[in-house]
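Next up, a specimen:

>
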Amino acid sequence: MSEITGKLQVSARALYAHHLAFLRAKAGLSLVELADRCHYEQSYLHRLETGGRLGNMLVAETLDRFYGTGDLLAGLWLLAKREAKRAAGGLTALEAAATSIRAYALTTVPALLQTPAYAEEHLATTHPQSPEVLAAQLNALRERQARLTATTPRPVRYRAVLDELVLHRGARNQATWDGQLDHLIATAHEPAVTLQLLPLHAGPHDLRGPLQLLSFRVGTTLAYTHGTLTDHITDDPDDIEHLSRLYDELRDLALTPTQTIEHLHTLRTTTC
């Protein structure tokens, strides 16, 4: 029994990857031959067939035409895309179950460290909603943030590396930004929270977007990456190892927690 048919529940992403590999094998082609005939990189096609990448609709349509499979691959790709968006919506539940979270923020303050005013400005700008929906989102955010405080029964160990771009971007309203800086300083003193600033002079690095690494009591770790068009959650060991290594490299380049708090204090005094 194959790995695909032997599972009671199969993700659309796994089905898509399985069909890609099956169709290539049925056609008697190697990855090198397929790459040459379809004009895609061999490594890219390999990632698609192993589920490491989802790719885009264009490659699904291209391979449908190549294999003569109608809209089969395009349909599976669309299901996998929708599935990924639904999975990303479960981040709140994952945060609630995690024992530790390591986060990297590139352009905005991480959600778990945002004040209501900053969060409201961010949500209203990026995802405009009705006042009722916005209020519900802010209430949900407050509940998520409760696990960072020492008063909660099971505080999560939270480490965040903030790119200095976050501080340069600030907020549109100065009072909102002043309050956010005060909140970062206060939260950085929580026993379960470690905050580090990655200065611009640290130079280039390979972590290209926001990341959360969530670890659980059972010993597993999930990686949540946030993209412009969609978010993605993975438990692939190779992905986790790679992203953890990149995160650790950034952590080592960042200011120490004490230096970070001092920098935030200095920045706050200059805004007065």
Notes: Residues 12-88 form a domain with the 434 Repressor (Amino-terminal Domain) fold (CATH 1.10.260.40).
